[in-house]
Amino acid sequence: xxxxxxxxxxxxxxxFLKRARLDSIRHFNGIQIDRQLITALAERWRKETHCFNFxxxxxxITLKDVAILTHLPIDGKPVCVSDHPPEDCxxxxxxxxxxxxxxxxxxxxxxxxxxxxxxxxxxxxxxSITWLTKYFRDHYKSHPLTxxxxxxxxxxxxxxxxxxxxxxxxxxxxxSNLLSCGWLRIIFSSWEEMGEYSWAxxxxxxxxxxxxxxSLKAVREVSGAMFIVQFxx
Length: 233
Known about the structure:
3-stranded antiparallel sheet, mainly alpha
């Protein structure tokens, strides 16, 4: 899930992704997941040991595996998000103003945009990635991004692209397209500061967490970066 909520990669944003040490993620959008393989692996996962229990013995995904497969940085600060909202400003709630100041778009907090929406694009500390991606897809159809575009326009495109990739591919959830606004504190920070995080270890922790949930008898779905599990297998 999540690949439809990602803006197409554009070469003009590559310098920003390199500054954030996240340029490798551009290779992972649109990967087809082998559902039978992931199901078979989840059935062999043991949450007590965080290992797959094969006939040949135990095996597990290590931090080195994730680093080699994804080229994400393993050194740096832990990836921690806080939903505590910024202060309200200019008559807008804190998170709404935070998004507006960085992306130049005012996300509606009440009512639905059209009949296909089941909830407002923004509620409390969460924002709809579907709405956000659709808004910028429409914007860039009429104002295509080029190598000659202003730097701030390229940066805006890069940040929306990262929102879709981080939430839709690496830290996806099963039942919702909502992004916790706490992620925006990291994604809207400076590119160099974004590169100071240990993205690979956060990704591995999320994989362990989701496989532990998926191994339970009553659970029928799994989320997270299962494409990494597939590559590893």
